[in-house]
Write a structure and sequence with these properties.
Number of strands: 11
Helix content: 40-55%
Oligomer: single chain
Strand order of the largest sheet: 2-1-3-10-4-11
Order of helices and strands: HEHEHEHEEHEHHEHEHEEHHE
Radius of gyration: 22 Å
Structural class: alpha/beta
Distance between the termini: 64 Å
Shape: elongated
Length: 252
């Protein structure tokens, strides 16, 4: 065997080793509801600080992520902002048995610009008059969890019929929040954690917890990845829950 061929084979072998090492360092791909952005970023940083590969985080509306998974997109973990979209993924046999758990809880609020009027107790005709002056920013109430919670709450409070024509439907809850931040809508329906993460926006009022079903975030594994299981367990651990709590999420 010539020296040139030996060098070529050694170079090829080193390349394969480097590729394998890079693959091993790549963390799990996590598809997560847009409202989890800051909390999961903090958790991913803490996980990496423990010597693990940092998870790759992809945020969007739970509806969009669930549809991607059901269409064949490959990922390791799914964090939904409601049970319904996780149920849809589970019905297709796409989650690993025994890995579904409640990760966190949230509250639904109306936000407005800082210094704007407070809405006080959110009820009936008075609420409808304020919000129907619109436009009212909401995640799409036909599919996105934040929008569905919002429509349910406004219906229960007797305001949806008046408000619905003035709703600006956003692709996810963060897009709805951005409309209020930019002054494109005086009010928006978002999660309490979104309001904490926003600039120039304040909570104008809280929806009663009884006006909609509880807001829960289920997490489940979509693959057999060991790293994905490790990160899932970390999120559910005391330390992981403390990280989420610092961003305003209620413990599971």
């Amino acid at each position: 065997m010539t020296m040139r061929r030996i060098c070529f084979l050694l170079s090829l072998l080193l390349g394969l080793i480097a590729t394998s090492a890079t693959a091993q360092r790549r963390g799990p791909l996590v598809l997560a509801a847009a409202s989890m952005q800051e909390a999961l970023t903090d958790a991913a940083d803490a996980w990496r600080a423990q010597g693990h590969a940092r998870p790759v985080l992809s945020y969007a509306a739970s509806s969009a992520l669930a549809r991607q998974v059901m269409a064949g997109a490959r990922a390791d973990l799914f964090v939904s902002a409601d049970a319904e979209w996780m149920d849809a993924v589970a019905a297709k046999g796409l989650i690993v048995a025994g890995t579904r758990a409640t990760l966190a809880r949230n509250r639904l609020v109306v936000v407005g610009r800082v210094g704007g009027p407070r809405l006080g107790t959110l009820r009936g005709a008075a609420l409808a008059r304020v919000l129907a002056a619109g436009p009212l920013a909401m995640a799409d109430p036909d599919s996105v969890p934040a929008g569905r919670y919002g429509r349910a709450a406004l219906t229960r409070l007797g305001a949806w019929e008046a408000v619905a024509p003035r709703v600006v439907r956003a692709e996810n809850v963060r897009a709805a929040l951005a409309l209020v931040e930019r002054g494109a809508a005086p009010y928006g329906v978002v999660y309490a954690t979104d309001a904490r993460a926003a600039r120039g926006v304040a909570i104008a009022g809280y929806f009663p917890a009884t006006s909609h079903v509880p807001i829960v975030y289920p997490v489940a594994r979509l693959s057999a990845s060991d790293e994905a299981e490790g990160f899932r367990r970390f999120l559910l651990s005391t330390r992981g829950q403390a990280i989420l709590a610092r961003r305003g999420f209620a413990r599971r």
